[in-house]
Each structure stands twice: as C-alpha cells, then as structure tokens.
Amino acid sequence: MDKIIDILDSIAYEKGLKIDDVENSLKEALIKTAEKMVDPTLRFDAEIDRPNKKLELFQKIEVVKNDDERLKEDGVDNYGNIISKENYISIEEAKKIDESLEIGDFVNYDLEFENMGRNAATILHSNFEYRIQRFLEESLLNKYKNKIGKTVSGSVTRVDRAENTFVEIGEVKGMLPRKSRIKGESFRVGDTVKAVVKGVNIDKTNGLIVEISRTSPKFLESLLKSEVPELKDEIISIEASARIPGTRAKIALISTDSNIDPIGSVVGVKGVRIGAVSKQLNGENIDCVEFSTIPEMFIARALSPAIITSVKIEKYAEGNEKGKALVTIPADQKSKAIGKSGLNIRLASMLTKYDIELKEVGGETNISSNETEKQNEEKIHDTASLEALFK
C-alpha cells in the first residue's frame, strides 16, 4: 500500500482516465471491502493523503445528543437497510475524546487494511477493477458518441452466421450489420473496413459496441470531406444527401465563396475526386446538384439530367413531413426524370423532401415518386420470395 499513489497515477495515465475518477474508484472499493470484511451495518470512509502517499481507511461515528434514540437500538433507513447503534456516540462520550467535537461531527477510528488478510486484498482488487472498467466504458462511450457521423476504419475479426461483420476499431469493437452493408459486399477476417459511426451502445455480453454503417448518407458525406479540401474547410457545404447504396446517390452542394464552383470542386479535374469516393462505394454513381433555398429551383435541379418545364408546389414541407410538388416536363424528358427503375425521381424526392408528381406538357399526371418507391419495394419483396425457394 506504500506505493498506492504511484499505482493510481500509472493507471490513470495508461487508461486515459482522470486521476480523481481513479482515486474515487479506489476509495469506493475500499469502503465496500471494509463493509464485507468487518460489518456491513457500520459506516466507513477512506481518504488518500497525497503529500504523505498514504491511503487511510476509517470507521465514522456520528456525534448525537445524549438522549438520541439511535444510541439505544438498531434502526432501519428509508431503503430498508439496518442502521447500527454502533454508528453513533453521545456528545458526552465524544467530549471525553475531543473537547472541540459538536453534535453532527464525526469521530473517526483508523483501520489498518493490511490486517484484514488476503481475502480483503482479493475483494478490493475485484471491486476496484469493476469500477475502473465502468469508468473506461463511460469514457469510451462519450468518445465514440462524439464520433457519430464520422468515418472510422478497422480490421475484420469475425463474421457471424447472421453475416454481421465485427471490426476492431482501436480499443473497441465495431459491428457492421448486414443491413448496413452495401449490396454485393462481403468481408473476410483480416480485411480492412471503412465505415461511418452510426451509434454506440453497451452490450451485456460483448461490452461496448460501436455500430457502423456503409449505407448511411453520412458515410458518403464523410468520404467526400476526406477527398475534397473545400468541404473539410467548410468553403463548400453539403446541404442534403440521398443514397440508394451501391447504386446511385445525389448530393446538394452550396458554396460560401461566389468565386468557387461547388460542383466543379467536388467532382474534381476529370472526375478524380468524385471517382475516388465512388470506388470506395462499389462503383456507386454520385450526382452533384447545386442547392437552392427556393424549393421549385431545388426540385428542378434535383431531377437532372432531365430538363424541367415548370415546378408547382402544392404543399410545403414542414419539419419531418414531406411536401408535394407537381413537375411539368416535355414528353422526351420523362424517361430521364424517372430514371432506370425509378431511381432518379426517388432520389430527387429523398434529397428535396418533396413527393414529386410528373406531368407531361399538356397531358395528365403520369407518375409520382411515391409510386416508383412502392413498385421498387414490391419488386424487392418478389425477388426475396423467389430467392427463398432456393435456400
């Protein structure tokens, strides 16, 4: 115990914890050990004397009135715990020990931890280790909560039967669920995986787990920021993004400098920058559009490469609710606006947060973003049912 201060300092440094937290953990562990080894109904406290490099353990006895009922018999607190009369001393008896003592003060009796035996040392170690582990988990929890939306990378350590991929990310475990993996991807032990932090939670079996994703729009945004200095420096910002992972994505960009072209900067010379990001997403096509605070203009740009005749807002978007927009297009632009399997209109709707209905010039409403989404969901369901026959 004579080296306890040095040990505490070493633990705090190696684990990256605050020294106060480490000291409080030891004091709490020491009190719990004393309760177990001596008497759980007594009051104990501990102090760390840094100048003298000593750890002090003592029993606390409260000074009360001479006629206090607690001096006569044991009681029970509000939580049902037994309160021993040994925790109290009358003011008359206390004055015999120290004349300066008053009612409400405490008389402290020193205890020698070394005299409690080997079992006490084992219990202390177990209690102390448990509390340090809780502080470590809390520290890591806060650390990775601050990383939500940021990209991390690590090595694959395991792939389970449900095809969840477990990744070693620094000092914690990361889990990439199957649903958060880009279609067609598969990983083996030893592979390096890059993904965005989606959430953090503590699992009773596996401890701290960081959930990561490769399908989140935030992953696309994070990758772009790593490739485009203007995004990192916030000269250009991503106002909105939408993805159908592994297939196609749209991002809305705006520049704070009128001399900088947001789309040109993100795409890069001969598409080098956007190409580097697309490669990391299994060849996902990324469309860049210029953001506008005018909904009609933003919707028209989001439907590119189609050329739009007009946009009429029938219901404005509020909060998390989607608005509704009627878009008039020339007949020869219909297929471009809809896109292959309805991808273009669906992404435009996701990006702008408007349900988009297309209408040919001089004709009736042809198709809406809602219809294409439903058709796609039905198609996926039908395909899944067919695949199930061969499993």
UniProtKB/TrEMBL annotation:
Record's GO cellular component terms: cytosol
Keywords, sorted A to Z: Cytoplasm, RNA-binding, Transcription, Transcription antitermination, Transcription regulation, Transcription termination
GO molecular function annotations of the record: DNA-binding transcription factor activity; RNA binding
UniProt domain S1 motif: residue ranges: 149-213
Assembly notes: Monomer. Binds directly to the core enzyme of the DNA-dependent RNA polymerase and to nascent RNA.
Role this protein plays: Participates in both transcription termination and antitermination.
Subcellular location(s) per record: Cytoplasm
Membership in a protein family: Belongs to the NusA family.
Entry-linked NCBIfam families: NusA
Keyword Cell inner membrane carried by entry: no
Record's protein name: Transcription termination/antitermination protein NusA
